[in-house]
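Here is an idea for our session: we take a single protein and study its fold together. Start from the sequence, derive the backbone structure tokens from it, and show both lines together. Once you have written the record down, we can walk along the chain together:
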Amino acid sequence: MSNVDETPARSRGRPRAFDREAALAQATRLFWIKGFEATSIADLTEAMGIGSPSLYAAFGSKEALYAEALRHYRDNNEALVWAGFFSAGTARDAVMSLLMDSAAALTGCVADIPRGCMVTLSSVGSEGHVELGELVRTARAITLERLKLRINQAISEGEIPASADVHALARFVQIVQNGMSILARDGATRSELEAVAELAMLGWDTRTGAAKRRQG
């Protein structure tokens, strides 16, 4: 057995004088509102209530802090738009829930959060930060994959015809949701976005044959 002291390093010495998760929440909110490039270290230390030495000691760098902020954003906000999607009995209900819940969440109607989606609105990849850009692209791709999985399940269950273009349907829903995020940031209301969601579902019904089944 090794004689090396395996006590975690951060348990030694003087404990940090701030709540790391609370500071991370403030950093996430700031990145969400301003974006990566426009957020300075001075902005971050002011919002987080710490000095720059503490910021670097706790998070390593601005880039590493942003990566953690993306994780914090996902862990604390994902359920606002995805819970109904995952619990819905049909693909149509799942998509309707996703868009309606997005209309509420993206406009800040269900929680004290900034408008729009932090991931959708991020331009970090185009600002020269390759690794962070890849993190954001991967996060965006999750939406498409979840939609494709749900549509494929609906096809296997007979809800949607096998001839349906799974990728195009999933992209359609993703694009609608992304557009809602941008408009929410510009001030669109919840009711406006809900109207968009209802119109999008008409398109969904046309492409999946749901409209004909309802008429029948």
Q: What stands out?
A: Residues 1-15 have pLDDT under 50 and may be disordered. The first helix runs from residue 20 to 34. The chain is about 70% helix and 0% strand.
